[in-house]
Amino acid sequence: MTTASRYNSRVFSLEQAVGEEPTLALLQERIRASKECLEAVQALIPLPLRSQVQAGPLNNGEWCLLVSSASASTKLRQLLPTMQQRMRQNGLEVTSIRLKVQPPRR
User: Fold this and answer.
1) Nearest 5°: phi and psi at 72?
2) Which of 48, 71, 76, 85 has the most CB atoms around its CB within 10 Å?
3) Percent over 70 (pLDDT), the chain
4) Which of 76, 89, 74 is closest to 50 using CA atoms?
5) How many angstroms separate the CA atoms of 71 and 38, rounded?
6) pTM of the model
7) Is 17 exposed, middle or buried (0-12, 13-18, 19+ CB in 10 A)?
8) Euclidean distance between the first and final Cα of the chain, in Å?
């Protein structure tokens, strides 16, 4: 058997590899849950701000939104109660939302 054929018999997707490793599978699930939270509140975020917001970590019911500027963070802070209400309506178990200013990388 050639080297190429040995490797081809073990080819699998990155998603399959992540799913097989318990630690990575947990991380993948947390990323999916965080993105689901963002999708639930996306319509509440004013259109000009949407490009400045990213889903951040979700840990023990605390969800972090990464925001690209302090001014965007200030505007979003006013929406936090409405966002939490929307997430509860969607069955998402988020007890608090934290905003973290994280300027874009250069």
Assistant:
1) -65, -40
2) 76
3) 80
4) 76
5) 19
6) 0.75
7) exposed
8) 47
